[in-house]
Structure formats: structure tokens, C-alpha cells
Design goal:
Elements (H helix, E strand, L loop, with lengths): L1 H20 L2 E2 L9 E9 L3 H14 L4 E8 L4 E8 L1
Parallel strand pairs: 1-3
Antiparallel strand pairs: 2-4, 3-4
């Protein structure tokens, strides 16, 4: 029983730590942060899927936040985001 409780505690802490490392989508350039580049992604799904892909790429690039600066398409979505740190 003690092992199960320790495992649940470890998973909770790991999940909380990962969520703090994820990039945050912002609507305007954050004060005090610098632009570190841009990323692009495409999706066969909807706008939500495109946002998820841009978020993953921003997190992978080490950005603390990102701002979507363009998105277009109908059946195939394309998007670009500016990264900040």
C-alpha cells in the first residue's frame, strides 16, 4: 500500500513539473521577454490540433511563451508562431 501511495505521489509531482515547463500561448508580446525565433506547423485537423502542434514545438524549442502570428487553410491548416523567452 505504501508503494502505491509513493508511486501516485511521484506521478503527481512529475506531471506538475512537466506542466510548468510547457510554453504558454499569449496574445501579445510579453513584457521583459525577448523573441528567440519562429516556428511553423501544419495539421490535417482543426485549429485546436494546429495550436497543440505549435505548443509542442515551442516547448521543444525551450520557449517560455509563444504567440500565433498566422494561421490559414481549410482542409489542411498551416500556422506560424513567434517564440519568447
Amino acid at each position: 500500500m505504501k508503494t502505491i501511495a509513493m508511486t501516485i505521489a511521484a506521478l503527481t509531482l512529475a506531471t506538475a513539473s512537466f506542466s510548468t515547463l510547457a510554453a504558454t500561448e499569449v496574445q501579445s508580446a510579453p513584457a521583459g521577454e525577448q523573441t528567440i525565433g519562429t516556428i511553423s506547423a501544419s495539421s490535417n485537423g482543426d485549429l485546436g490540433t494546429l495550436q497543440s502542434k505549435l505548443n509542442a514545438k515551442a516547448t521543444e524549442a525551450g520557449a517560455s511563451s509563444y504567440r500565433i502570428i498566422g494561421a490559414s487553410g481549410e482542409n489542411h491548416m498551416y500556422g506560424t508562431a513567434e517564440l519568447y523567452k
